[in-house]
Write a structure and sequence with these properties.
A hairpin with a 5-residue loop joins strand 1 and strand 2. Helix content is about 50%, strand content about 15%.
Amino acid sequence: MAPVNTKNVHRTNFLLGHPYGTDFVYDEMMVAPGFGEIGRVTTETFATIFSLLGTGGLKPGAGPTREERAKGFYDILFLGELPDGRRVEAVVTGDRDPGYGSTSKMIAESALCLVRDVQGEGGTWTPGALMGPALRKRLKERAGLTFNAR
């Protein structure tokens, strides 16, 4: 998601009047426990893509079971470095499978936030610029996410 997320983060910084500064740099990557884990994830990803292309996509019921979705979770660490060299860490956690359980709750809460909690002046907004604090509150209260900075 790095190509999309990078543009989204920079556009949000711009729309909010550069709270992170005009020289702000953002990049992202996935860190796995070891080389073997990276190889496994890469292999599974390519196998899934080629399988989906060959079969016309997922069929109903092909995803994780209800139990697997309920047991799923994620814990994402964001690392930042300030111009003076200090580090900032932020952690986002979710209480469900990120691809099924959590994403659907985030989409529903985003829609409700747009309808009930925010007003924009038109134009092309990013979720962070238009809904930031209101959406974060909804996700914490209703969608099983936590946000912590240290």
